[in-house]
Amino acid sequence: MENVHILTQRISARGEFLPFSAEHYRNNEPAAIHRLIEKLQTTLNIEELLTIYAEHAKQLINFSGLQFQSSLGVAQIADSDNSQPPYSFNLDINNEHLGQLIYFCQYPLTGNIEQKLVGLHCALVYPLRNALMYSRVLKLATKDTLTGLNNRSQFDTILTQKLERFRRHHRPFSLMFLDLDNFKQVNDSYGHKIGDDVLQEFADVLYSSIRGTDSVFRFGGDEFAVLIDDPDFTTNKVIAQRVMQLVAQSNLMKQYAVTTSIGFTLANSKDCENEIFARADKGLYKAKASGRNCAKAY
């Protein structure tokens, strides 16, 4: 088989290597940007937008990584190599700051290349703003506004997905219910501001107690749930003990005499949503009936 060589050209006084197709791109720049805009309008996923944009931008600049940082977090292209020096650009539209687009390049950018990229960003900012707005709406629809945890609607969706995956791929899981002992008295005696502080503290406890493969939810009030990717009661007991220990160590929880009761159950392949829900709820009822501040399986 003949060797295949990628032709490159060095641009004078820039120190960067560009694909040989860059000259072709310059000769067809308006049409190329029009095609880019059309492609960017096909998705509201931020990572997909970056991927589409990166494929186009690499006709102008040889970068190893591309990242976008915004109030929603960090997004980047797949296999982004961020070990090279970063070059950041603020992305703004109508006085609204979207975030920073960061290129990771081995070679420094000249003013000419920076100008080209700034012009290219004009094609990206409107689709990117739409994607950010869409992501924020999804977050509002699936997150509890006080604690930042997944909400009940998201729980119903993920539970259905896990049951289906269990039936199809034999991937078992367990369900844990938790509520706060003495929480009503805190609200009645000290007001809802203190109650909100307690709920936020407990949300932090749950985040600290679960693994990356687990999901935690707030149903409303002082009711919480955890979906655990593990078929063993031992894992549930470990997580429950960790939660209760952190609650006991919390100065805020101790100040208002708040503890937690926990019930959990293992899923089986014949479960429907109501059946596994009812068993976990019975486990929580057993914990309450056993004096609270404990965990019970059902």
Task: Describe the fold and architecture.
The longest helix has 32 residues. Strand 5 and strand 6 form a beta hairpin. The N terminus is likely disordered. The strands form 3 sheets. The chain has a 5-stranded mixed beta sheet, with helices on both faces. It is α+β, with helices and mostly antiparallel strands. The protein folds into 2 domains: 134 residues, GAF domain (Beta-Lactamase, 2-Layer Sandwich), CATH 3.30.450; 146 residues, Alpha-Beta Plaits (2-Layer Sandwich). It is built from 10 helices and 11 strands. Its cofactor is Mg(2+). InterPro entries: DGC-Regulatory_Protein, GGDEF_dom, Nucleotide_cyclase, Rev_trsase/Diguanyl_cyclase. It comes from Pseudoalteromonas arctica. This is GGDEF domain-containing protein. It holds the Pfam family GGDEF.
Fraction in helix: 40-55%
Apparent shape:
elongated
Rounded radius of gyration (Å): 26 Å
Average pLDDT confidence is: 88
Side by side, the strands of the main sheet go 8-9-7-10-11
Query: What's the structural domain tally?
Result: 2
Q: Outline the biggest β-sheet.
A: 5 strands, mixed
Q: What is the CATH topology descriptor of the largest domain?
A: Alpha-Beta Plaits
The CATH level-2 architecture of the largest domain is identified as: 2-Layer Sandwich
Unreliable stretches (pLDDT < 50, length at least 5) are: 1-21
Count of DSSP-assigned helices: 10
Q: Briefly, what CATH class of the largest domain?
A: Alpha Beta
What's the SSE pattern? EEHHHEEEEHHEHHEEHHEHE
Counting helices, strands and paired strands, the structural category is alpha+beta
